[in-house]
Amino acid sequence: MPRSDALPDGASTPPPGSTAAAGQRPLPALELAGGVLRPHADRVAEEVPVALVYNGISHAVMLATPADLEDFALGFSLTEGILRTPAELYDCEIEPGCDGIELRMEVASERFALLKERRRSLAGRTGCGLCGIDSLQALAADPSPVHAALAGDTAPTADAIARALTALPDAQPLFRLTGGVHAAAWADREGRLLLVREDVGRHNALDKLLGAAARAGLDAATSFIVCTSRASYEMAHKAAIRGLGLLVAVSAPTGRAIDLAERCGLTLVGFARGGRQILYSHASRLAPPA
Question: Catalytic site residues?
Answer without folding.
Answer: 128
